[in-house]
Amino acid sequence: MSTMDLIDFKSVFDRAVSNHLTIVEKLSELYPNIERLAHLMGTCIARGGKVMWMGNGGSAADSQHLASELVGRFRRERRGLASIALTTDSSVLTSVGNDFSFEYIFARQVEALGRPGDILVGISTSGNSANISAGIQMGRKLGLTTVGLLGGNGGKVAELCDLALIVPANDTPRVQEAHILIGHILCELIEADHDLATTAN
Ligand SMILES: O=C(CO)[C@@H](O)[C@H](O)[C@H](O)[C@H](O)COP(=O)(O)O
Ligand SMILES: [Zn+2]
């Protein structure tokens, strides 16, 4: 028997689309905060700051994806915009995880690389990953603007960060799909900023 026989992939697809539509309808409540965050990110970068991203698993991939949209290009020709994912340096991740603890893998990088005025985004579908909470706490201590891109009820991270964007759903993959949609909207808004689009480094 093949996997195709075991999984009714058409119904998985239908349920995913229907879940996604429900989430997208609810996302309208988040629009003001998405616009606010895009403005904060644009201003931060224009002033010489950077946007840092962190997340676990699929959200680690989202962190890299969104940093690359800013450093490289989303849609428009413009200068590179300062952004970094804290999920990519295997030597840092393994040494900090091994010598300190896994909980500290992002906090240590925030301590080393973060500067007051930078923006730190923690992406977590549960809002309860200990390493994201620790990273956000370090960011706050050092004067960064801290943001949670979250799911469920926002969890512990929502209580810790300056700005929480919570996708009101509990199914991890569906929340992740909404997160990347929000991330792409942020990139589009930031890139539409005339000063960032035209100012040279
Ligand atoms: O991509 C997926 C599930 O779709 C997984 O890799 C998922 O990201 C991992 O289980 C994460 O560790 C979940 O962490 P979080 O979103 O609760 O912070
Ligand atoms: Zn996933």
UniProtKB/TrEMBL annotation:
Functional summary from the UniProt entry: Catalyzes the isomerization of sedoheptulose 7-phosphate in D-glycero-D-manno-heptose 7-phosphate.
Subcellular location: Cytoplasm
Keywords: Carbohydrate metabolism, Cytoplasm, Isomerase, Metal-binding, Zinc
Catalytic activity line of the entry: 2 D-sedoheptulose 7-phosphate = D-glycero-alpha-D-manno-heptose 7-phosphate + D-glycero-beta-D-manno-heptose 7-phosphate
PROSITE patterns found in the cross-reference section: SIS
Residues in SIS domain copies: 41-197
Additional detail: The reaction produces a racemic mixture of D-glycero-alpha-D-manno-heptose 7-phosphate and D-glycero-beta-D-manno-heptose 7-phosphate.
Subunit structure: Homotetramer.
GO molecular function: isomerase activity
Keyword check for Calcium: no
A Pfam family per the record: SIS_2
Domain of life according to the entry: Bacteria
Binding-site list for substrate: N56, G57, G58, E69, N98, D99, S124, T125, S126, S129, Q176
Co-factor note (free text): Binds 1 zinc ion per subunit.
InterPro entries: GmhA/DiaA, Phosphoheptose_Isoase, SIS_dom, SIS_dom_sf, SIS_GmhA/DiaA_subfam
Protein family (similarity comment): Belongs to the SIS family. GmhA subfamily.
Pathway named in the protein's UniProt entry: Carbohydrate biosynthesis; D-glycero-D-manno-heptose 7-phosphate biosynthesis; D-glycero-alpha-D-manno-heptose 7-phosphate and D-glycero-beta-D-manno-heptose 7-phosphate from sedoheptulose 7-phosphate: step 1/1
Binding site for Zn(2+): H65, E69, Q176, H184
Known cofactor(s): Zn(2+)
Name of the protein described by the UniProt record: Phosphoheptose isomerase
EC number: 5.3.1.28
